[in-house]
Amino acid sequence: DITARVMAAELTKSLGQNVLVQNKPGAGATLGTLAAVQSPPDGYTLLAVFDSHATNPSLFKKLQYDTLKDLTPISLIVKGPSMLVVNADSQAKSVAELIEMARQKPGSVKFAVVSPGSSARLYMELFKRMAKVDVKMVPYKGGSGAVVDLAGGQVDAMFVAIPTVTPYLQGGRLRGLAITSEKRSEMVPGMPAVAEFLPGFKGEQWVGFFAPVRTPPEIVARLNAEMVKAVNQPEVKARFFKQSFETVGSSPADLDKWLREQIAHWRATIMEAGITLDK
Q: Which helix (H) or strand (E) holds 163?
């Protein structure tokens, strides 16, 4: 929502006409996607998606649209890591120590997760799969309750968005062990990546823009150019940096490549864990 509103404000200025944001939640963001797919391909309806756009093809047995064929990519706007955090009193001072704790007492380490298709759940499943450990999943209805319980010691670990836990880290109630991007980030200086302990581990939150398929190429090119210009403005970069996002501003082709890689990356983890959002 924050990313969409920042971009809407910038596009309103550069295009000379109002760009409005309409939230359409539900069914893992598939309702909003379907609404965009069914809209006229005239450049007046755009779709802002986040990382669930790449996991939904595996989480749902059948979608009412084709993720790759029914939308035209415009630009990958931002991306950023989540963080693996533990209670400040945890014996685990590193990812390696957390893995060792889980191996010594299978099922003893409790991971907070928010919902079946959430990044917190998927990162946990990937962690289990790659570290070959058995951990206990503790589901929560919302992230705030999970973080409060983590700080209180009711659960042991969690993958979570960095801004959500920054006050707890600064207050000494939680300890960050690693970030989920492939490499270290200047957003969290000195913090290792999970991949340094589990080579190949990766996961990032991201936001990209799409248009209905058959939107004229010249319109897609204009929108891409304006979005790339917007995210390269210092004040826009700074605003996203505070949200723990780095700006990208990719080409349509690079967003298409990114989406395909993300779908393939998460499919095996979702299938092996047997996660589904079908009712």
A: helix 162-170
CB 247 within 8 A of CB 77: yes
Classify residue 137 as exposed, middle or buried by CB count within 10 Å of its CB (0-12, 13-18, 19+). Answer: middle
| Residue 81 in tokens | 């890591």
Contact (CB, 8 A) for 132 and 157: no
Helices (H) and strands (E) in the chain, counts: 10, 8
Tell me the pLDDT tens digit for each residue of 25-77: 777 778 999 999 999 999 999 999 999 999 999 999 999 999 999 999 999 99
Whole-model pTM: value is 0.94
Q: Which residues have C-beta within 8 Å of that of residue 220, sequence separation ≥ 6?
A: 43, 72, 74, 211, 252
State the Cα–Cα distance between residues 100 and 104, nearest whole angstrom: 6
Q: Minimal CA–CA distance to 274: which of 59, 67, 115? A: 59
Strand partners, 152: none
> 116 falls in which pLDDT band (50, 70, 90)?
confident
Is-contact 131 198, C-beta < 8 A? yes
Q: Which two tokens stand for residue 151?
A: 């700080």
In 3D space, the residue among 245, 180, 252 whose CA is nearest the CA of residue 3 turns out to be 245
